[in-house]
Specification:
8-stranded mixed beta sheet
């Protein structure tokens, strides 16, 4: 390998917003560092980045001191600034988190406290005050979070790719990784190309655990894909901004919510049902090998036994339009089943430990000449700029050691 030479200093696998933010951060922090990004799709941001609600999260939900809390709060402000600087569509709309049952009121108050601990200003609203923000929404109480917004994350990813100065290779699916601590990392793509780098960064999202194992590092988790199904609201005038239910703290999912995008349309969803493939955007997409890999992980069965009741409810809403409609009507009583127009689904790459625990924070691990981003679902798009800087710091530290 020494006689052939390196194609780059840092080789990034994954052309979603986290991988591209990492490339951007590396070249900003260490100009002249050669970065190559391998992305298996024909363009950037084709999976989690491009198939979400487009929400710039405030950081109110996340445990104080966690990576999610720190990076989301910081990242939200940076994302608005980045979009403004580069002319990318965005809007700071604010959002309501609405309690519709008395049992949710303590959790709503807990979110107020968490928001204050995370440095996020919130306003508490009584039932009558909700109408000041959302005339059609009904609830017992709510909180208004002013720093939440929406943006075009695909546009952000494209700008990061361009501004990074990295070499971006699309259509470059990783087939094999050969890592030698004394030499470097060589990646063979499905087209037969060999790319050599001194340090590897794994930002492969839905396939990050596979890449880690190809590299020779045991990630001690597996990605369990959860599909989130969405609808568009046929009467977008019913919603002014963003409306969320009070989430269940036992799960990293936020529940079915209403999101008015920068284009004026209103997105409804997602639910969270197990996908039958890593990129299983519908029930008809089944990949037996990938499904077998999921079922072979002990944590998948332990998670299912622990959370079967929650999962049954999500599955019911997936298979029944009327059940999904009822979930929406808790927040927006005027909605009918005819108002829900099917929209493209997304898949969340959720890391699950061997004991069945759903990893609740961002998870980044180091190996010899490697940095693996092993759990970066929502709010990773919001937090992508600070995540990218942290991964870049680790990659550059590894590079300095070789």
């Amino acid at each position: 390998m020494r006689s052939i030479g390196y194609d780059c200093d840092v080789l990034v696998i994954g052309g979603g917003i986290v991988g591209l933010s990492t490339a951007y951060a590396i070249t900003r922090a260490a100009p002249g560092t050669r970065v190559t990004v391998l992305e298996k799709e024909p363009g950037p941001a084709r999976h989690q980045t491009g198939r979400n609600s487009g929400v710039i999260h405030s950081g109110i939900y996340y445990r104080p001191g966690s990576l999610k809390a720190r990076y989301a709060v910081r990242g939200a402000a940076e994302m608005v600034k980045f979009c403004a600087e580069y002319g990318i569509d965005h809007a700071v709309t604010g959002k309501l988190i609405v309690a519709t049952e008395r049992s949710e009121l303590p959790r709503l108050h807990g979110l107020v406290q968490r928001g204050r601990e995370n440095g996020i200003p919130v306003r508490e609203l009584g039932s009558a005050q909700i109408a000041e923000y959302e005339p059609e929404v009904r609830g017992l109480a709510a909180i208004q979070v002013g720093s939440t917004g929406v943006c075009d994350f695909v546009g952000v990813a494209r700008q990061l790719a361009e501004a990074s100065g990295a070499e971006i290779r699309y259509g470059a699916q990783v087939a094999r990784v050969d890592r030698r601590p004394d030499l470097g990392v060589a990646v063979r793509t499905s087209r037969g190309d060999i790319v050599r780098g001194r340090v590897l960064v794994n930002c492969a999202g839905l396939r990050c655990d596979e890449i880690a194992r190809m590299t020779g590092d045991e990630p001690e988790m597996r990605i369990i894909p959860f599909r989130g199904e969405y609808f568009e609201l046929a009467r977008p005038d019913l919603v002014r901004g963003l409306v969320y239910p009070v989430p269940d703290p036992a799960f990293p999912f936020l529940g079915v919510h209403l999101t008015r995008g920068f284009d004026g349309g209103v997105h409804i969803g997602p639910n969270a049902v197990p996908a039958l493939a890593r990129e299983g955007y519908g029930w008809s997409t089944v990949r037996p090998r990938e499904l077998a890999t999921t079922l072979a992980w002990p944590g998948a069965w332990r998670m299912a036994r622990r959370h079967w009741l929650y999962g049954a409810g999500e599955l019911h809403r997936s298979l029944s339009r009327s059940a999904f409609t009822e979930a929406v009507r808790r927040l927006l009583p005027a909605v009918t089943a005819r108002d829900l127009v099917p929209a493209p689904a997304g898949v969340r790459a959720q890391a699950v430990l061997r004991d069945g625990t759903l990893v609740d924070d961002f998870l980044i691990k180091e190996g010899d000449r490697a940095v693996h981003v092993l759990n970066a679902p929502s709010p990773a798009a919001t937090a992508s700029l600070p995540i990218g800087r942290e991964v870049a710091r680790l990659a550059l530290t590894a590079l300095a050691r070789v």
